[in-house]
UniProtKB/TrEMBL annotation:
Residues 29-50 are annotated as: Disordered. One of its GO terms (cellular component) is cell envelope. Residues 54-311 form the Periplasmic binding protein domain. It is found in: Cell envelope. This is Ribose transport system substrate-binding protein. Residues 1-31 form the signal peptide. PANTHER family: D-ALLOSE-BINDING PERIPLASMIC PROTEIN-RELATED. It comes from Streptomyces radiopugnans. Belongs to the bacterial solute-binding protein 2 family.
């Protein structure tokens, strides 16, 4: 049965691509160096270039962050008169996604942007695209072989943990015998291990701080509430909590409110709109979140367009786009939340 492909070439303005999207916005070298608005309006970065058809394949949008990935890709493509986006119906089934990408290869799109449901399982498909002469921008979940993609762009899971730990460390550096707990994501995922390692490494610089408990959840509201309730019951007092994911953080906050606990500060992860609004309101324990920016999908479209037009990245001396681009995990607090709120995902 043929896979469903959705084609989009509407042109609407999307001015919310701050952070990751701003890194390579208007990235082709036809951008005007004097155009100060290029960071948020790529359609002003010069005259349209060679027409490029970009195939986009991602997983099922069953999480707020994944839905934001799809929206960022679609809206960025709509800003370019010279870009046509062929977007698949997202799937977490490996075989289905392979079939969708194969359809895009057979349609001879100019460039592929792929966020694989499983990087290892989709590696062979990436290799097939590259062998067919279609450059691949590998988004976030990396393929096993660098030969399967021309460019990788994604978040920094280790950096998330590192920056969360540094923020908490600085908050508690003058607190004697400070206690910290961690609400992690799925322990079966390598990204969860990387986030925890970064967190632990950062806390190692603060000898007054001890991590007294860690509980793994499942990136869902329900699991966040249940696992946080367990942590609260086991730990009668502590000074800080790092929660890996803002979706499960919704449930964690419910458990915290139900328990009537407010003696600690909470740091979230990924950068949801609800988390940023809570930080802005400053009426809960949630005081910061560490970004894992979904705007990376907008940047992936920028990079794919550059590849299709044979251009480099504006602001860099090289004639080609980079082979990899790791995004920074910024800390969002009350002081800067207004800058990042437009990038928050639902």
């Amino acid at each position: 049965m043929p896979e469903k492909i959705l084609t989009s070439r509407r042109r609407v303005l999307f001015g919310a691509a701050i952070g990751a999207g701003a890194l390579v916005t208007g990235c082709t070298s036809n951008a005007s160096s004097s155009d100060e608005s290029a960071a948020t309006a790529p359609e002003t970065a010069g005259k349209p270039g060679k027409p490029v058809t970009i195939g986009f394949a991602g997983p099922q949008a069953d999480h707020g962050w994944l839905n934001a990935i799809n929206e960022n890709a679609t809206r960025r493509a709509e800003q370019y008169e010279d870009v046509t986006l062929e977007i698949t119906e997202g799937s977490n089934d490996t075989a289905t996604q392979i079939g969708q990408i194969t359809t895009l290869i057979n349609k001879k799109v100019d460039v592929l942007v792929i966020l694989p449901a499983d990087g290892k399982a989709l590696t062979q498909t990436g290799l097939e695209a590259m062998r067919a002469g279609i450059p691949v921008v590998n988004l976030d979940r990396i393929f096993n072989s660098p030969q399967a993609y021309r460019c990788w762009i994604g978040g920094d899971n280790y950096g998330m943990g590192l920056n969360a730990g540094r923020y908490i460390g600085e908050r508690l550096k003058d607190v004697a015998d400070a206690k910290v707990v961690e609400l992690a994501g799925l322990d079966t995922l390598e990204l969860t291990k990387q986030r925890t390692q970064g967190f632990d490494d950062a806390l190692g610089n603060y000898p007054n701080i001890t991590k007294v408990a860690r509980q793994a959840a499942e990136f869902t509201v329900e699991s966040g509430q249940a696992k946080m309730a367990q942590l609260l019951q086991a730990q009668k007092d502590f000074d800080a909590l790092w929660n890996h994911d803002d979706d499960q953080g919704v449930g964690a906050l419910r458990a915290i409110e139900q328990a009537g606990r407010d003696e600690f500060v909470m740091v979230g992860g990924a950068g949801s709109k609800s988390a940023m609004e809570a930080i802005q309101s400053d009426d809960s324990v949630l005081k910061a979140t560490v970004l894992y920016p979904p705007t990376m999908a907008a940047s992936a479209i920028d990079l794919a367009r550059a590849l299709g037009q044979g251009k480099g990245v504006s602001g860099l001396a090289e004639l080609e786009i980079p082979s990899s681009l790791t995004l920074y995990s910024a800390i969002v607090t009350k002081d800067n939340v207004e800058d990042y709120l437009p990038t928050g995902f639902i």
